[in-house]
Automatic annotation (TrEMBL):
It comes from Dechloromonas hankyongensis. This is Propionate--CoA ligase. PANTHER family: ACYL-COA SYNTHETASE, ACYL-COA SYNTHETASE SHORT-CHAIN FAMILY MEMBER 3, MITOCHONDRIAL. Gene3D superfamilies: 3.30.300.30, N-terminal domain of ligase-like. It is an enzyme of class 6 (ligase). InterPro entries: ACAS_N (IPR032387), AMP-bd_C (IPR025110), AMP-bd_C_sf (IPR045851), AMP-binding_CS (IPR020845), AMP-dep_synth/lig_dom (IPR000873), ANL_N_sf (IPR042099), Propion_PrpE (IPR012694). Residues 60-439 form the AMP-dependent synthetase/ligase domain.
C-alpha cells in the first residue's frame, strides 16, 4: 500500500485483516479468537480472547533482547538531576514497585491512583500497575484537593501513590497537604498511601497506619521478581479523566490489547520511531499524551523516552533543544501553547544546538494556528505535524502518516483521517458535508482498537455523551466543528459549543482567531460568541499583545483594535469582525493548556464562569472581568 489513502481504505473496508496485521507488532501470551466483537453497538471489543500485558510489551520484551539499551531518560531542570535507565534497570525498578504494591494488598482489577510530579518513579508506578493487572488512574500533579477528591470518589483506589512535592520554576510545590485534604473530602478513603519522599518538603504530615515510605519498602524488595499478569485484551488498563474544558471531566476507560496494538501501529506509521531511537514528548503524565506518548507508545516501540520535569524557558529558552542535542532525540511531541511561548523568544536559542537527529515534531491538543505552524516549520526545517485527537481516543484521529506516505503539510491542518477511523464531517441533519462545507466531525463506529471502552462505571453516560448526535446514522461525536478542503485536508474550526452564529452566518472561533493572529502585534487570542439582540451573537476577542508597550495608553488601544478589525475584515469579511478586542496579558486555560472559552463567554455575558477546578491561573479571569468592566 503505497499511499495513505489506500492504507486508510483498507483499514475501513477490511478491518479484520488490517488489525490482525497490526496486532503482530506486539507480543501475545495467547492469541485472540475474534478481531472485533461489535455485537452490542456502540460498544466494541477488540482482539477478543487474546492475552497480553502492557508492561511486558513496553519493558520486558525489550529487556530480554536489549537489556542495556536506553529506556527511560529522566531530566529535571528543577532539581538538576539526570538519570538514564536501561530496559533491564527499568524492569528491575518496575518489579520492585510491583512487589511493594502487592505487599500493600493491591490485586488485579484494583485501582491505583497516581498523583505525582514528572519523576522517574511515576513511570515505575504506572508500569507496575499494569504489570500486576491493577488499573491506574493518573491525576495531574498540581490539581487542587477538590479536583483530586472527585477523581478519588469516582475511581475508588485502594492505593494512592504520591510525593511530597512537585517543582515549578525552581520552587517546591508541596503536594501532600493537598492529598490529605482530598482524602478528607472524599467518601472512599484509600487503605494506603505510598509516599515518594523527594526531600523537598521536610516534615510533611504523615498519617500513621496509612502512609508508607517508598524508599524503605524498596530496600526490602531489591531482588523482587514479579511476573506480568496476563490480561484478556478487553480488561481495563487505566482510567483517565478528560481535561474538563467543556464541563465535568469524564472517566475514560482504556482496554489493554487494543491500546497496545494501536500505539504500536502509530509508532510505526505516524511517529516513525523504532528501536535505538529517542522520543521526547514535552507533555505531562497527567494527560493522555503523557500516557500514550511519554510512557507506553515509545517504550512499546523499544525507543528511549524522555521524562522532563521543567518548563520550556528555564534555565533559558534553549533547554528543549539542548536536550535534543544531548540525547540525539529523533522525534518530538509538543503542544501549540508551548510553540506560541517559544515563538516569542529569540530563535538563536534554538539554532545554538545541533538538531540534526530530529526527524519530525508532532503537535496536538489545540488548534495549531497557521502563523505558528509556518514559523515553527520554517525555523526547524523539518515537518511539524499537527495531529488531532482526544483523551477518549488515546491516539490520533487526524494526522499525516509519514511512515506510510510523505504527504505535503498544509499549515493549520492536521491533514487526513488516520487508519481505523471512519471519520467524516456531517451536516446537522446527519448527511455528509461536501468539500469546503463546515460541519461536525464524527466517526462511524465501531471505534478502532485502543479508544475508550466506556466511561468508567457509567455505560449509560458513554452512550449518551458520545453517541446521541443523530438518531440516524449512529456516530461517535467529538463535538468539534470542522471543514475539509478539495484535497481532503481537514481543519478543526473549534468545538461545536464555540460556533458563533452572527446574523445566520456560522463562524468557528478558530477562523476568527486565525485572522486576528495574522496581525503582527498579536501573540495569542481567544474569541467567544456573546449574545447580541440584533444579530443573535457577536464575536468578542481577548488578545495578548507581543509587546505590552503597544497598548500603553487608551489611544493606542483604540488604534490597535482598529487595525485588528481591519485585519479580520480583509481576511474573513466584516461579518466576522469582533464587537470588541480586549487586550490582556494572559488568557484562562486549563492545566493542559486549553482555552477555557466557556468561562470567557460566561463572563462576557455576565454569567458565572462555571466549574474552574481545572484552570491554570485564576488571576487571568480577574483581568478579563476588569477588561469587560473598563
Ligand atoms: P472535556 O472533554 O472534558 O471538555 P477536552 O475536550 O479539552 O475536555 P481533551 O481530551 O484533552 O479534553 O481534548 C480533546 C479536544 O482538544 C478535542 O476534542 C479538540 O477540541 C481539541 N484538540 C485536540 N487536538 C487538536 C488539534 N490538533 N487541533 C484542534 N483541536 C484539537
Ligand atoms: Mg472533550
Amino acid at each position: 500500500m503505497a499511499t495513505y489513502k489506500e492504507f486508510h481504505q483498507y483499514s475501513i473496508e477490511k478491518p479484520n485483516e488490517f488489525w490482525t496485521e497490526q496486532a503482530q507488532l506486539i507480543d501475545w501470551k495467547e492469541p485472540f479468537t475474534q478481531v472485533c466483537d461489535y455485537s452490542r453497538p456502540p460498544f466494541s471489543k477488540w482482539f477478543v480472547g487474546g492475552k497480553t500485558n502492557l508492561c511486558h510489551n513496553a519493558v520486558d520484551r525489550h529487556a530480554a533482547k536489549r537489556p542495556d539499551a536506553n529506556a527511560l531518560i529522566f531530566v529535571s531542570t528543577e532539581t538538576d538531576e539526570e538519570k538514564v535507565y536501561s530496559f533491564a534497570e527499568l524492569q528491575r525498578e518496575v518489579e520492585r514497585m510491583a512487589a511493594i504494591y502487592q505487599s500493600l494488598g493491591v490485586k488485579r482489577g484494583d485501582r491505583v491512583l497516581i498523583y505525582m510530579p514528572m519523576i522517574a518513579q511515576a513511570c515505575f508506578a504506572i508500569l507496575a500497575a499494569t504489570r500486576i493487572g491493577a488499573i491506574h488512574s493518573v491525576v495531574f500533579g498540581g490539581f487542587a484537593s477538590g479536583s483530586l477528591a472527585t477523581r478519588i470518589d469516582d475511581a475508588k483506589p485502594v492505593l494512592i501513590v504520591s510525593s511530597d512535592a512537585g517543582m515549578r520554576g525552581g520552587k517546591a510545590v508541596p503536594y501532600k497537604h493537598l492529598l490529605d485534604e482530598a482524602i478528607e473530602l472524599s467518601e472512599n478513603k484509600p487503605a494506603k498511601v505510598l509516599m515518594i519522599d523527594r526531600g523537598l518538603d521536610k516534615g510533611y504530615n504523615k498519617v500513621a497506619g496509612r502512609d508508607v515510605d517508598y524508599a524503605t519498602l524498596r530496600a526490602q524488595f531489591m531482588d523482587a521478581k514479579v511476573p506480568c499478569e496476563w490480561m484478556e485484551s478487553n480488561e481495563p488498563s487505566y482510567i483517565l479523566y478528560t481535561s474538563g474544558t467543556t464541563g465535568k471531566p469524564k472517566g475514560v476507560q482504556r482496554d489493554t490489547g487494543g491500546y497496545a496494538v494501536a500505539l504500536a501501529s502509530t509508532m510505526k506509521h505516524i511517529y516513525c520511531g523504532g528501536e535505538g531511537e529517542t522520543f521526547f514528548s514535552t507533555s505531562d503524565i497527567g494527560w493522555v499524551v503523557g500516557h500514550s506518548y511519554i510512557i507506553y507508545g515509545p517504550l512499546i516501540a523499544g525507543m528511549a523516552t524522555i521524562m522532563y520535569e521543567g518548563t520550556p524557558l528555564r534555565p533559558d529558552a534553549g533547554i528543549w533543544w539542548q536536550i535534543v542535542e544531548k540525547y540525539k532525540v529523533n522525534v518530538m511531541f509538543s503542544a501549540p501553547t508551548a510553540a506560541r511561548v517559544l515563538k516569542k523568544q529569540d530563535p538563536a536559542y534554538m539554532h545554538k544546538y545541533d538538531l540534526s537527529s530530529l526527524k519530525h515534531i508532532f503537535m496536538a491538543g489545540e488548534p495549531l494556528d497557521q502563523p505558528t505552524h509556518e514559523w515553527f516549520m520554517g525555523e526547524l526545517g523539518i515537518p511539524v505535524i499537527d495531529n488531532y485527537w482526544q483523551t477518549e481516543t488515546g491516539w490520533p484521529m487526524l494526522a499525516a502518516l509519514p511512515g506510510v506516505e510523505k504527504t505535503p503539510i498544509k499549515y493549520g491542518s492536521p491533514s487526513f483521517p488516520v487508519y481505523g477511523y471512519n471519520l467524516q464531517i456531517f451536516r446537522e441533519d446527519g448527511s455528509v458535508c461536501g468539500p469546503n462545507e463546515k460541519g461536525i466531525a464524527a466517526v462511524i463506529p465501531p471505534l478502532p482498537p485502543g479508544c475508550l471502552s466506556t466511561v468508567w462505571g457509567q455505560d449509560d453516560r458513554f452512550v449518551s455523551t458520545y453517541f446521541t448526535l443523530f438518531k440516524e446514522p449512529l456516530v461517535y461525536s467529538s463535538y468539534d466543528w470542522a471543514i475539509k478542503d478539495e484535497d481532503g485536508y481537514f481543519t478543526i474550526l473549534g468545538r461545536t459549543d464555540d460556533v458563533i452564529n452572527v446574523a445566520g452566518h456560522r463562524l468557528g472561533t478558530r477562523e476568527i482567531e486565525e485572522a486576528i493572529q495574522a496581525h503582527a502585534a498579536i501573540a495569542e487570542v481567544a474569541v467567544v460568541g456573546v449574545e447580541d439582540k440584533l444579530k443573535g451573537q457577536m464575536p468578542m476577542a481577548f488578545a495578548v499583545v507581543k509587546d505590552a508597550s503597544k497598548v500603553a495608553t487608551p489611544e493606542m488601544v483604540k488604534a490597535l483594535e482598529k487595525e485588528v478589525f481591519g485585519t479580520v475584515d480583509s481576511i474573513l469579511g466584516a461579518i466576522a469582525r469582533p464587537a470588541r478586542v480586549h487586550f490582556v496579558t494572559g488568557l484562562p486555560k486549563t492545566r493542559s493548556g486549553k482555552m477555557l472559552r466557556r468561562s470567557l463567554q460566561a463572563l462576557a455575558e455576565g454569567r458565572d464562569p462555571g466549574d474552574l477546578t481545572t484552570i491554570e491561573d485564576p488571576s487571568t479571569l480577574e483581568q478579563i472581568k476588569n477588561a469587560l468592566a473598563g
